[in-house]
């Protein structure tokens, strides 16, 4: 990579994974559903203002908007809610990042189910199995099987994996099959953000009553999550996609667990245990195998 591309890549990795840390800072002041709701309500308003100023705000019709809104519900709403529920149940941020790192592996292995000609090879399936084993190994040594809360906390990030994998496969099918009109990035993000806001409004209002302590620490965390993570990291990701192959951009998500573990150690003193390192190493082996380009069955 060129120096500029490396800087953009480093910025993306840091900003994206800082979302786990920002969420931990915000959760003491509100519930998981409400935090996602406030974040995406504000993000939607910011994008609307931007689109209005650029004279690009428009309704594209349900046929075009609906798949983008579904992607938003899965890739933003379900993904983030499950992450926050896990963090709210005292699962360390680095471990949550390790579990959700299964998503690119799962997407690569399952892409053949929705796109003909993209069948996963044996190395990719082996990589997925190894990655899953690495996560299970790490979680098994941390989970308290006698506590329902602990079991729930460590299992719920799998919902994030399911949500983001489904969204990625839908997006991939749209691009290959051209079943829906492709929208500009900013307009697509608007519909994704709007759908996430509307979906999270229900549990935020009826379950958590929108209970929020509007203290400075919460406001700072919310601002960071909106502008640095939801906008900053998203913009940097698309800048990278313009410069390098999408698969190389996707590989940057595998840096999430170690980077988040380091951030969590610096911010909260979360200690990395030996089995965390072992599980992380196994996941990286799985990642390496998943990148092997071979036609072997």
TrEMBL record:
Residues 6-139, 153-289 form the EamA domain. The keyword Hydrolase does not apply. It is found in: Membrane. The chain crosses the membrane at residues 36-53, 65-87, 93-116, 123-145, 151-171, 183-206, 218-240, 252-268, 274-292. The keyword Ion transport does not apply. Its main location: membrane. It is a multi-pass membrane protein. Keywords: Membrane, Transmembrane, Transmembrane helix. It comes from the Bacteria. Belongs to the EamA transporter family. This is DMT family transporter.
């Amino acid at each position: 990579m060129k120096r500029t591309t490396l800087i953009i890549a480093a910025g993306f990795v840091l900003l994206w994974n800082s979302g786990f840390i920002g969420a931990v800072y915000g959760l003491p002041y509100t519930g998981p559903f409400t935090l996602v709701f406030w974040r995406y309500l504000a993000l939607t308003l910011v994008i609307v203002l931007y689109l209005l100023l650029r004279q690009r705000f428009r309704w594209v019709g349900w046929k075009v908007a609906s798949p983008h809104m579904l992607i938003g519900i899965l890739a933003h709403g379900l993904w983030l809610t499950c992450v926050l529920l896990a963090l709210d149940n005292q699962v360390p941020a680095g471990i949550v990042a390790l579990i959700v790192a299964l998503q690119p592996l799962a997407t690569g292995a399952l892409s053949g189910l929705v796109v003909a000609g993209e069948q996963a090879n044996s190395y990719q399936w082996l990589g997925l199995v190894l990655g899953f084993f690495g996560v299970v190994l790490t979680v098994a040594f941390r989970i308290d099987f006698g506590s329902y809360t602990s079991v729930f906390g460590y299992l719920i990030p799998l919902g994030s994996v399911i949500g983001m994998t489904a969204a990625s496969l839908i997006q991939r099918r749209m691009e290959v099959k051209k079943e829906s009109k492709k929208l500009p990035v900013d307009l697509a993000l608007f519909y994704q953000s709007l759908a996430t806001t509307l979906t999270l409004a229900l549990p935020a209002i009826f379950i958590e009553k929108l209970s929020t302590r509007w203290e400075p620490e919460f406001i700072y965390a919310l601002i960071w999550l909106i502008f640095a993570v939801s906008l900053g990291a998203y913009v940097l990701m698309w800048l990278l996609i313009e410069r390098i192959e999408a698969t190389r951009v996707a590989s940057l998500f595998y840096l999430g667990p170690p980077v988040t573990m380091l951030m969590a150690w610096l911010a909260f003193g979360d200690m990395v245990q030996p089995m965390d390192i072992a599980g992380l190493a196994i996941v990286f082996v799985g990642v390496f195998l998943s990148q092997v380009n071979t036609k072997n069955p």
